[in-house]
Specification:
- With 230 residues, this protein is of the alpha/beta class.
- It is 41% helix and 21% strand.
- It is built from eight helices and eleven strands.
- The strands form three sheets. The chain has a five-stranded parallel β-sheet with strand order 2-1-3-4-5, sandwiched between helices. It has a four-stranded antiparallel β-sheet with strand order 6-7-8-9, with no helix packed on it.
- Strand 3, helix 3 and strand 4 form a beta-alpha-beta unit.
- Helix 2 runs parallel beside helix 3 and helix 6 packs across helix 8.
- The protein is elongated and about 65 Å long.
- The two termini are 40 Å apart.
- The C terminus is likely disordered.
Length: 230
């Protein structure tokens, strides 16, 4: 990841950078708040570590401006202040997490991983496969820009397949993923839902292939004009 460290303590900033770079991250350092604000507004970062006590512009204001611009870059605030009000204020402004000095670098790395995972989970609410889009938050589906009408069961089966594109998914796995204790679904029912999905998706050249004896695989739309294989 490309990470910005906004920290005015040179020893701490370089210590964090020296720890993160061998982990494969590209790290840049801002010494005061105005530099951090300018760098965040002009460049793309996957994560920002922001000290609250920055000179010229404090970390609270850096976070506030970042969120006011509509930037969703994950932000962890670093503070020497252990007061509850400060922690709450930082989170209310849009910080994703905070660390109180002094802290262990291993804990910082763990917090970074957790914040990034949460961001990835949020982004996964929108599943895109060629012309097909499933928004699991608004529960809307579109195909080539047009609304796609799906029953609840069809949606559930398609969502399972979309989360494992180009991988074989067994009928048993689909059953486990979409069933509740009240359901009495069978593998034959899954075949019916897959058949209905094919009828709706194949006009856009989206293929659900049967892998006999194993299950189904959602494949990338073919490049040629060949008819889909079942």
């Amino acid at each position: 990841m490309r990470i910005l460290i906004a920290e005015d303590d040179p020893g701490l900033a370089e210590g964090i950078a020296a720890y993160l770079r061998p982990l494969g991250h590209a790290v840049e350092v801002a010494r005061h708040g105005t530099d951090a604000d300018a760098m965040l507004s002009g460049e793309q970062y996957e994560l920002a570590l922001i000290d609250i006590g920055l000179p010229r512009m404090d970390g609270f204001e850096v976070v506030r401006r970042m969120r006011a611009r509509g930037q969703t870059t994950p932000a962890i605030v670093i503070t020497a202040r252990d007061a509850l009000d400060d922690r709450v204020h930082g989170l209310d402004l849009g910080a994703d997490d905070y660390l109180v000095k002094p802290f262990e670098l291993a804990e910082l790395a763990a917090r970074i991983r957790a914040v990034v995972r949460r961001g990835q989970t949020a982004r996964s609410a929108r599943l895109v496969h060629g012309p097909l889009v499933l928004d699991t938050e608004s529960h809307r589906a579109t195909l080539a820009g047009e609304p796609l009408d799906l029953t609840a069961r069809e949606w559930a089966v398609l969502e399972v397949l979309l989360k494992r594109v180009e991988k074989v998914v067994s009928k048993e796995h689909i059953l486990q993923a979409i069933s509740t204790w009240e359901d009495d679904l069978t593998p034959n029912a899954i075949e019916v839902y897959v058949s209905r999905l094919r009828a709706k998706l194949e006009p856009a050249r989206i293929r659900i292939r049967t892998i006999r004896g194993f299950g189904y695989r959602l494949e990338e739309p073919p490049q040629s004009g060949n008819a889909p294989e079942h």
